[in-house]
Every structure is written in structure tokens, then in C-alpha cells.
Design brief:
Peptidase_M17_N_1, 464 residues, Aminopeptidase, 19 strands, single chain, 15 helices, 2 domains, metalloaminopeptidase activity, five-stranded mixed sheet, Leucine Aminopeptidase, subunit E, domain 1, manganese, nine-stranded mixed sheet
Length: 464
């Protein structure tokens, strides 16, 4: 089990540090002209071009030890195309303390956050003893906020990257409890007969596995506006009796990415001690194949009382979220947010780098977009398109979990969830939770999406 996030941090602000000069392509020549001739010649001979993230070490004047470095800022087009470009330099720098010199103030927060995120490695099964270079936090950066965002992201990545053999429902519960204990939060866990009675769709999805299903609730904060986060915790998804092909199962350890992301966001909120009342709900199941597993065409009764025809046992995530959302709405939180690795249709629509989201609240959407820009955490709004409501109504039950419509799969899934959320300030994310190849500050593997955007949007959403 992995429960405690790594602890990224900045260098002591009073410590000595070597300079890391930041130079844009259009100002490279002027910068070189202002440097000692030995450095200018060194960089020209090495064909340093100040491309985004391009790094050159600077030797002492006697040709000895490295006394500094220069990193390229590229141009505006390169920066628009690649987040955290400066973070490419982190792995190539020698250990020790560094500080940016010449970093434009508008880029300082992204650069500082990228530096911390670039140090993440999932080393549980292949330990590494790398000593990373340390950065002095740039002026004007909210150090506590950036550290909290990095620590929350590290927790999310650790959870998603852990294989299902070591992260089933019980282990996810243990990580959930550990998160609560670190911050003095209260936890409630429902399982067994009570789960079958009170959360019948969570039970129906998880009953096919030998690893018992459960639903967890965390509560933190005594005053302020109320926020409830709901995350899909399907620890592994075989597809059930509608069995996935081998290729479709390769990444299914990440099917609890929604739970991991709301847990990472909760870590950020609690570490920063935001003035709100937080609740986090995670239904934790494994969707397995056995004689006990739910069957296609079964009709389930939900916690809310709505009946659901199961037309695909591989559309299980919306079933467990439905009961969780109904539970959340019984307390009428001021803002309700769900996150899930829910549909392949969302990946087809926007790819792996964007977090698509749904809401009927324009003010919430505007706050989120502002937060996404500030947190280098891109999102994209998709519509709760009412014209597709009839698609999710099968005729012999109130709802269909997998309509054979052939179009708009992410939208119809979101509409299904909205039937259970029944909340005017509801927002749903259909995330991917995985970086398919190494990118600056995002090594291949599990990744949080939307959490930083939400953290930075909360003051506006909740009037903090």
C-alpha cells in the first residue's frame, strides 16, 4: 500500500545557490554579449540556442567546477505548446541549490511548480537514490500553495501508479484513512450488509470480486461553505462479464484515477487549511468476473430509488458514482464535484492532455477556466446536452447505463450522473489520469487532472 505522499520542497531561502539564467531566444544575442567572453564562446561553440528547456552548464573561469547554468525560455509559440518547459532542465542539473536569474515574473509560479513536479518518480518497485537539485522559491510565488499542489499531485500519482495487486478496495481504504489521519479528518466506511442495503449499485458492481466493495466518506473543517468531492474508485476493471480485450485492460489499474485525484485535491485543501467544510466520498470496488458478478440486462435499484438497466457491465463507473452522488446530495453541499476515468469517448474528443468537464453553472465554469490558466492545468468544457436525455432511458427501467447510441458517449454518461446529482452547482470531470509518454514535469504514468484548476477556482466558486 502507498499512502503517504512524497515531500517535495524548496531550498532554504538563506542558503547559497548557483544561478540558473533564464534566456529567451529573441534576447539570446544580447545576453551573450553581456557575459564574460569565456562563457559566450563556450555557449556559441556548443550551439546553445535558448530553445525551451535547453540547458547548458557554465564552468568556472578556470575551466573547473560548474558555477552556474543557463536554460532556454524558447519563444511564445513554444511556451504555448508545452507546459512546464523549463522543467526539462531539472534532471540534467547537478545536485545542490539553484535559483532562477532573469525569470519573467508571470512565469514564476509555473516554473516553480514544474521544478517540483519534475522530481516525481514512482520507485516503489525499483528504488532510486537520485539526489535532485533544489530550487530557491522565486520571488512572488506562493510557496505554501505550490508545495501543497505538488504534494497532492504526488499522492495522486502514487495511487494511480500502484498496481491493482497492491491497491484493491481495502488498500485504497487504508490510503483514504491515512490521508484523514494526517489532517485530523473523520472517516466513515460502509461495507457488508449495510452496503448492499444502502448503496445497492456499489454492491452490485463489486460483488463479483473476492475483494469486498465499500464506500468511504471523509469530513474535515468546522466552518465555512461546504464542498463535496466524489471520486470513482474502481481499483481494477476487467469489464465484468462484458470482458474487456487484453489491450483494454492494460491501463485499468488507473480506473481509480478519479478517487486518487479527489484525494490529492483534498490533501491540498487540508494542507492549506482553506476555510471550508470538506467532504470526500469514494466508492471503492473491483469490477471482476465470477458467478456472483452482475449480468447484462440485470435491473438494479439505486440508493436514490431510480432503476437502472445494465446493458454493459463495463459501464460500471457511473453506477458506483450514482449511489455516491445521491448520498452527497442528501446534505445539499454548496458545491458538488465528481471526478472519474469514465469514458473512452472523452479521450477521443480531447485526447489525454485535457480534462473535460461538465457544469450548468456558468460562474463555476468561468472560475475553473481562470484556475486552469493559473495552475497550468488545462480543462475543456463539454455540454450537458439535454437533447440526448432520451438516449439514456431504456423503457423498462428509469435509466440505461450504456445506451447503444453510438455517439456522444461522454455526454450521455454525464447526463446519467446528473440524474443522481440533482444539484444546481454540480461539476463532473471525465479525466484520463495517465500521461502516455514522458513530458516536462509529467513522467509517463499516473497523473492528476483538474485538481490544481479546482484548488485555484475554489475561492471564487465558494466566496472564500
Amino acid at each position: 500500500m502507498t499512502a503517504v505522499p512524497n515531500m517535495p520542497a524548496f531550498a532554504d531561502p538563506d542558503s547559497a545557490a548557483r544561478p540558473l539564467h533564464v534566456v529567451a531566444q529573441d534576447s539570446l544575442q544580447a545576453w551573450l554579449d553581456a557575459q564574460p567572453p569565456q562563457w559566450a564562446a563556450w555557449l556559441r561553440d556548443g550551439a546553445f540556442g535558448a530553445g525551451l528547456g535547453e540547458l547548458a552548464l557554465l564552468p568556472g573561469m578556470d575551466g573547473g567546477a560548474v558555477v552556474g547554468a543557463v536554460v532556454g525560455l524558447g519563444d511564445a509559440r513554444a511556451r504555448a505548446r508545452q507546459r512546464f518547459g523549463l522543467a526539462k532542465s531539472v534532471s540534467a542539473l547537478p545536485a545542490g541549490n539553484w535559483e532562477f536569474v532573469g525569470l519573467p515574473a508571470p512565469l514564476a509560479t509555473e516554473a516553480a511548480l514544474g521544478w517540483l513536479l519534475a522530481q516525481y518518480r514512482f520507485d516503489r518497485y525499483k528504488p532510486a537514490n537520485r539526489v535532485w537539485p533544489a530550487l530557491k522559491c522565486p520571488d512572488g510565488v506562493d510557496e505554501a500553495q505550490v508545495i501543497a499542489m505538488a504534494r497532492g499531485e504526488f499522492l495522486t500519482r502514487d495511487l494511480i501508479n500502484t498496481p491493482a495487486q497492491d491497491l484493491g478496495p481495502a488498500e485504497l481504504e487504508a490510503a483514504f484513512v491515512a490521508l484523514a489521519e494526517r489532517h485530523g479528518a473523520a472517516v466513515q466506511v460502509v461495507s457488508g450488509a449495510a452496503l448492499e442495503t444502502d448503496f445497492p449499485m456499489v454492491h452490485a458492481v463489486g460483488k463479483g470480486s473476492d475483494r469486498a466493495p465499500r464506500i468511504m466518506s471523509l469530513r474535515w473543517g468546522q466552518s465555512g461553505p461546504s464542498l463535496t468531492l466524489v471520486g470513482k474508485g474502481v481499483c481494477f476493471d476487467t469489464g465484468g462479464l462484458n470482458l474487456k480485450p487484453s489491450s483494454g485492460m492494460q491501463l485499468m489499474k488507473k480506473d481509480m484515477g478519479g478517487a486518487a485525484t479527489v484525494m490529492g485535491l483534498a490533501q491540498m485543501i487540508m494542507e492549506l487549511n482553506l476555510p471550508l467544510r470538506l467532504r470526500v466520498i469514494v466508492p471503492a470496488v473491483e469490477n471482476s468476473v465470477s458467478g456472483r458478478a452482475m449480468r447484462p440486462k440485470d435491473i438494479l435499484k439505486s440508493r436514490k430509488g431510480l432503476t437502472v438497466e445494465v446493458n454493459d457491465t463495463d459501464a460500471e463507473g457511473r453506477l458506483v458514482l450514482a449511489d455516491a452522488l445521491a448520498w452527497a446530495c442528501e446534505e445539499s453541499p454548496e458545491v458538488l464535484i465528481s471526478m472519474a476515468t469514465l469514458t473512452g469517448a472523452a479521450r477521443v474528443a480531447v485526447g489525454p492532455d485535457l480534462a473535460p468537464y461538465y457544469t450548468d453553472d456558468a460562474a463555476m465554469a468561468g472560475a475553473l477556466e481562470d484556475g486552469a490558466r493559473a495552475g497550468a492545468d488545462p480543462v475543456w468544457r463539454l455540454p450537458f446536452h439535454d437533447a440526448y436525455e432520451s438516449v439514456i432511458e431504456p423503457g423498462i427501467a428509469d435509466l440505461d447505463n450504456a445506451p447503444g447510441y453510438g455517439f456522444a458517449g461522454s455526454i450521455t454518461a454525464a447526463l446519467f450522473l446528473r440524474r443522481f446529482a440533482d444539484h444546481p452547482r454540480y461539476m463532473h470531470f471525465d479525466i484520463y489520469g495517465h500521461t502516455p509518454s514522458d513530458a516536462p514535469a509529467r513522467p509517463k504514468g499516473g497523473v492528476g487532472q483538474g485538481a490544481r484548476a479546482l484548488l485555484l477556482a475554489l475561492p471564487q466558486m465558494l466566496g472564500l
